[in-house]
């Protein structure tokens, strides 16, 4: 999350596994240096036709990126002749495979800064896109576009992934082209702190899935899930997705996670700006100089850093932890996701209380929670209660954690206000997905296209 490496160090060949462990361990930071990095994806669409944005054309993705560059001084990122992203300070704008627009926010100190960043991004997009009659929609899954309707962004990495995904699961292409998420990246101070945060966030990720469930439609009709996005991940690629139960094993630490990543099949190696397809090959073989596509060559730390981004578990570690279990959602709810996790993980008392909430759950119970959350949301049964009961406790703990942080804005308000939308959800017992379904079966009269009108950014 904003860490830097010297170019020479990144390019130096890796000699031992201990270097990979040290690379992750270098992410440890004192509490005073902990930051918050929020990422969110959204679907762009043409307001007159309700079609997804193409890459090219006067009302396409390229035009938007170029306009943001020219008007707001973003630095362009190119692949070949195509602009594929933007950078400014510690933030970036990037493209997911189906053209989903992603803001990867800068590492920030508190949630007030996060919310300011989100609103600045929205203002910039509206300034550029309103005259083009382009809107954006926050959902976990494209509501009525078929897979073949989705544009394909000109990124070599995604070409390799699309070809390989089709071999590993029935829904991998849907994951790439038709899903959108919001996530937060958070720091740790030591291996023990990482371990505790990893365990708590992995166990409670299904609770976040239920709280943020917002993808009940596929091809214009209800799909049987409250979070179709979460369901898609169950049939994408079992080698690199899901809950990592080894996180709860005795002795888990940086080295065990390195062993996991070493066993995740590779997608690509990047050389001279081009992506070389090595899909299915082993990073262990690469370290031994036995990669068929690059015989005799061994990886650098930059190759390792790239490979770390090709695993997609519900919580992912780089030099920080990424919470990956939530659907994209309404603009007002984007700041609630980082508020939830910061409240749970960044205050020691809250972290202890969160661990007490889930420490005796079994592997079977964690898996059951994951599957039931995507289908039934807060109403899913668990032990003598429901996911809603756990969610209520978790949000209460998060509020206490934010209160204890006591980070105030200019008006003297702490960060607890960002949880209000989640408190309304747990009190009412109804997810945003259920709100959408009620409208579909009621005032929308079975016409999901109303969603573009009522819920566009």
Structure description:
The protein has helices spanning 7-11, 17-25, 61-72, 111-129, 156-168, 172-178, 191-211, 228-232, 254-263, 283-287, 301-308, 336-345, 348-358, 363-376, 387-405, 420-428, 432-441, 450-454; strands at residues 36-46, 75-79, 82-88, 91-95, 101-104, 134-137, 181-186, 217-218, 221-222, 241-242, 268-271, 274-277, 312-313, 315-317, 321-327, 381-382, 385-386. The chain has 457 residues and is α+β, with helices and mostly antiparallel strands. Strands 1, 2, 3, 4, 5, 6, 7, 14 and 15 form a 9-stranded antiparallel beta sheet that branches. Strand 14 and strand 15 (321-327) form a beta hairpin. The protein is globular, with a radius of gyration of 21 Å.
